Amino acid sequence: MLQSATDHEPTPVHRGRSDGRRRPGAATSEATRLTAESIGILGLGAYAPERVMTNADWAARVDTSDEWIVSRTGIEERRFAAPGETSVDFAVAAAERALADAGLAARQIDEIILATDTPEMYSPDTAAFVQDRLGAREIPAFDMAGSGCAGFLLAVDVARSRAREGGKKILVAAVELISRLMSWEDRETCVLFGDAAGAVVVGPGARAARILAATAGTDGNKAGILGLEAGGTRVPFSLEAARAGLHQKVVMHGREVFREAVRRMSEAATTVLEQAGVGLADVALVVPHQANRRILDAVARRLGLPAEKMFSNIRLYGNTGSASIPLALTQAREQGRFRPGDLVLLTSFGAGFHWAAMLLRF
Ligand code: UT7
């Protein structure tokens, strides 16, 4: 299990002199003693909305069938936000659960990093609203937007290095309300996605789930294969573009995305195992980005991983973008799929193309 607040090692930046004044440079010298391996996940949590959208619901709206969706993706249902619910509501719900799990109050957080492709609004970023709603101090809070389904692990990796330098406790949240922004008429994409949020607290702690290794990469040459073009400077918001449906038009070359997802998620997984000097047999569970059941099966085959070590919740939640790994990790822990001391491998892939993987010791 993850640690409670009382188990936490003191955080160096908070260790002051009894007169409340910090020796110049003291925080820095103490902070430099933190190694990458002393940073870990102090707590985690997730949120999925109540509303269930089944394959039959989709078949009533677009030219598709339960048989096609299940056979091609493994998805049977997904959750969608209720009217009025927004990305901030989702992120705050997941963040509060992660903070409670870490035994921390919002005011003890030193930074917030939020991964999303479906922000609250164009500007300011979602993290600003989350800082306010949580009642956090006036700390740095910022989004890492547009990294697709790899966004969560990229944000955790950034949090890891920032926590290492300052001994900070950093809230990382990932949120997607894809149902609100996608086309409900495009059968090639709409049936794949679901809404959710997940969060972790990253920081130093003797009994944290240690981040043993991490890797990430980008191939921007493939940016045109998966993405949403309208809304940026290339195709600005306009009535004309909106009427043409461009603001909901997700471009996706499914087969190429499929192939690259299998290759990159497998290779990234192998990289973190090599970095940590452990074998796949040492890993208790792989928690991958939930893109497609067949992608996960192909990754398992490529790695030589027994099916029972590949966690999947895609049947009930679909592809929840950047939220999929923290949602799956939270559920895997609830289901007792890993125990204290176990190695858990996370691997992801998304638009960009971006990919990232991470090895944790719980
Ligand atoms: O996180 C990143 C997000 N994206 C992904 O992860 C997508 C990765 N790719 C995939 O998951 C798969 O490529 C898909 C599930 C999207 C498609 O599966 P596939 O086995 O690659 O399908 P396909 O290319 O063999 O078949 C596509 C056919 C087309 O019909 P024709 O041209 O063969 O007659 C589509 O029009 O399936 C048709 N199709 C559908 N039919 C019924 C596409 N979507 C649907 C649908 N219902 N919802």
Description:
The chain has 362 residues and is an alpha+beta fold. It has two domains: 171 residues, 3-Layer(aba) Sandwich (Peroxisomal Thiolase, Chain A, domain 1); 150 residues, Thiolase/Chalcone synthase (Peroxisomal Thiolase, Chain A, domain 1). The chain is 34% helix and 23% strand. The protein contains 13 helices and 13 strands. Strand 12 and strand 13 form a beta hairpin. Helix 4 packs across helix 5 and helix 10 crosses helix 11. The chain is globular. The N terminus is likely disordered. The structure holds oxa(dethia)-CoA. Oxa(dethia)-CoA binds next to helix 3, helix 8 and helix 10.
Give the H and E element order.
Answer: HEEHHEHEHEHEHHEEEHEHEHHHEE
Please mark out the parts with pLDDT under 50 across 5 or more consecutive residues, or reply none.
1-32
Hetero ligands: oxa(dethia)-CoA
Strand tally is 13
Structural shape: globular
Helix content: 25-40%
Structural class given helices, strands, pairing? alpha+beta
Q: Order the strands across the largest sheet as they lie in space.
A: 5-4-6-7-1-8-13-12-11
